[in-house]
Design a protein that fits this description.
This protein is α+β, with helices and mostly antiparallel strands and 195 residues long. The protein is 20% helix and 39% strand. It folds into two domains: 41 residues, no CATH class; 136 residues, Nucleoside Triphosphate Pyrophosphohydrolase. The model has no long low-confidence stretch (mean pLDDT 92). The structure holds magnesium ion (MG). Magnesium ion binds next to strand 7 and helix 1.
Length: 195
């Protein structure tokens, strides 16, 4: 990997990029997500404030039926005020929660599907600027359809789409959910690699 130094930072060493916590200014604890504000020391010695979300991590599953169609869930997302089309997903219950087991559980609860094969596609940080969240994406194949049993506060509807149809919705902006877009791309790239 090559690094390019930006003007003005020319005399700074890369080892000095780190920001360190001086103190926590506030914390709003939640069930799986907490909000926190820290005062930090910048590499040049100045101080700054960093507000961010402490997140236990999450999993998402791309469920692909034997005929190649994908099982999505439609649900209302309060922060964006819209009904979204997403792949099934859920937060981890803590550091001891096994991501693959959580992925199978979310798949079952939200779509009713059980999977014979679950393979990890990738893990990514959705928002490094303001969240500690890591999200693991799995591909589920060998699906058997069943009856969904969502959480009490979860209202979801199953929508089955072919890849082309789904990708057209990404292009048109109807599907904007990051993990869903990334999962669709990662699956197609994996198929290219396996050719
Ligand atoms: Mg869920």
């Amino acid at each position: 990997m090559t690094t390019k130094t930006i003007p003005g930072a020319a005399r700074r060493k890369t080892a000095e990029l780190r920001e360190t916590r001086i103190r926590t200014l506030g914390r709003l604890p939640g069930k799986a997500v907490s909000f926190r504000v820290d005062e930090v020391r910048l590499p040049d010695g100045r101080k700054a404030v960093r507000g961010y979300m402490e997140h236990a991590g999450a999993v998402a599953v791309l469920p692909v039926l034997d005929d190649g169609r994908i099982v999505f869930v439609r649900q209302h997302r309060y922060p964006v005020g819209r009904d979204t089309l997403e792949i099934p997903a859920g937060k981890l219950n803590g550091p001891g929660d096994d991501p693959a087991a959580r992925a199978r559980a979310e798949l079952g609860e939200e779509t009713g599907c059980t999977a014979r094969r679950l393979t990890r596609l990738l893990s990514f940080w959705p928002s490094t600027a303001f969240s500690t969240e890591i999200l693991h994406i799995y591909l589920a194949r060998g699906l058997r359809e069943g009856v969904p049993c969502p959480d009490e506060d979860e209202f979801v509807e199953t929508v089955i789409l072919g890849f082309r149809e789904a990708w057209a919705l990404v292009r048109s902006g109807r599907i904007k959910d990051a993990k869903t877009v990334i999962a669709l791309q990662a699956w197609k790239i994996k198929e290219l690699e396996n050719r």
